[in-house]
């Protein structure tokens, strides 16, 4: 894995304390990137930037940003226009407030970055980290990244402070689905069985237990093509097409399968109520008959 390079330098500012830090991207994509090529000879396909009005090819220094309104009007914005827009300091992570961690819904979270302290900032960095951890809070901050102001949070992950950008309120769409407003009747046995299924599949999350099988298959396909070999066939899991009688039966089958996958034996099934009652009645009758027989034998002995 290539060494990480800092993409931003500045300081975390909270109160009168400044913590000089460097910013590193915490994530990376592992997808294989493909080029568009001519199928016949493998030649790379090049895209030309042309004007839709006169058909001329345009160089980068002639390109500007344009916005088209809903009624079709176009406005062109220049670099000078953007320079006059309000922007937070390009080298400061400004702490606005500290909020409880549970109040930040994961749906708001965007890109993730690591903050590394400069050599002279190890102590204030550690102080901020421990304060966040002990109070179970995150710092809401404003920072200028990629030429625009972003809202973000600082939180602790192991020994590092992580900066995660946040979406703005109007960027999160509300979940407006009429079907969710309808009353749904859940039978107690269905809820118990659903809870049983959750418990039978419960585990401690370890991301190393999972693998991007598609990415692995693509890499193996590419490597085979490079070596001139025939790609190995990919095993595809067949979907379970078993007929589902009802929700409760599906839940029970799911619980049984989850237990089987864990090597657990299914608990002995209880006899149906009618059969159990019948067995109980038969046993009672047999006991009563045996008692009568014993009584008769005893009486006969006494008479003799």
UniProtKB/TrEMBL annotation:
Region Disordered: start-end pairs: 257-304
Pfam families named among the record's database cross-references: Ku
Keyword Protein transport: no
Biased composition range(s): Basic and acidic residues: 257-268
Domain Ku residue range list: 55-183
Top-rank taxon: Bacteria
Skewed-composition ranges (Basic residues): 271-286, 294-304
UniProt keyword annotations, A-Z: DNA damage, DNA recombination, DNA repair, DNA-binding
Entry-linked InterPro entries: DNA_bd_Ku70/Ku80 (IPR006164), Prok_Ku (IPR009187), SPOC-like_C_dom_sf (IPR016194)
CDD domains: KU_like
Keyword DNA-binding listed: yes
Gene3D superfamilies hit by this protein: 2.40.290.10
Subunit structure, interactors included: Homodimer. Interacts with LigD.
Role, per record: With LigD forms a non-homologous end joining (NHEJ) DNA repair enzyme, which repairs dsDNA breaks with reduced fidelity. Binds linear dsDNA with 5'- and 3'- overhangs but not closed circular dsDNA nor ssDNA. Recruits and stimulates the ligase activity of LigD.
Family as reported in the entry's similarity comment: Belongs to the prokaryotic Ku family.
The name this protein goes by in its record: Non-homologous end joining protein Ku
Protein's organism: Spongisporangium articulatum
Gene that encodes the chain: ku
């Amino acid at each position: 894995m290539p060494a990480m390079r800092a993409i931003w330098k500045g300081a975390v500012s909270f109160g009168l304390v400044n913590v000089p830090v460097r910013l590193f991207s915490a994530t990376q994509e592992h997808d294989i990137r493909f080029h568009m090529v001519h199928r016949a000879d493998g030649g790379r396909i090049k895209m030309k930037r042309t004007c839709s009005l006169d058909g001329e090819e345009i160089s980068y220094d002639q390109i500007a940003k344009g916005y088209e309104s809903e009624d079709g009007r176009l406005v062109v914005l220049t670099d000078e226009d953007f320079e006059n827009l309000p922007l937070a300091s390009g080298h400061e992570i400004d702490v606005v407030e500290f909020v409880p961690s549970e109040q930040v819904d994961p749906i708001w979270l965007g890109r993730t970055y690591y903050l590394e302290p400069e050599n002279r900032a190890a102590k204030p960095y550690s102080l901020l980290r421990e304060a966040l951890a002990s109070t179970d809070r995150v710092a809401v901050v404003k920072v200028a990244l990629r030429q625009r102001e972003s809202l973000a949070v600082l939180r602790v992950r192991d020994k590092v402070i992580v900066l995660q950008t946040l979406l703005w309120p109007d960027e999160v769409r509300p979940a407006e689905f009429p079907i969710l407003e309808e009353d749904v009747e859940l039978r107690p046995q269905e809820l118990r069985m659903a809870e049983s299924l959750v418990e039978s599949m419960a585990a401690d999350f370890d991301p190393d237990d999972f693998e991007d099988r598609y990415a692995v298959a693509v890499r193996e396909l590419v490597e085979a093509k490079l070596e001139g070999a025939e790609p190995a066939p990919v095993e595809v899991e067949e979907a379970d097409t078993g007929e589902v009688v009802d929700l409760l039966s599906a839940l029970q089958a799911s619980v049984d399968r989850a237990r089987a996958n864990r090597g657990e034996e299914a608990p002995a099934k209880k006899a149906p109520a009618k059969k159990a009652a019948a067995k109980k009645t038969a046993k009672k009758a047999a006991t009563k008959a045996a008692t009568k027989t014993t009584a008769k034998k005893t009486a006969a002995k006494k008479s003799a």
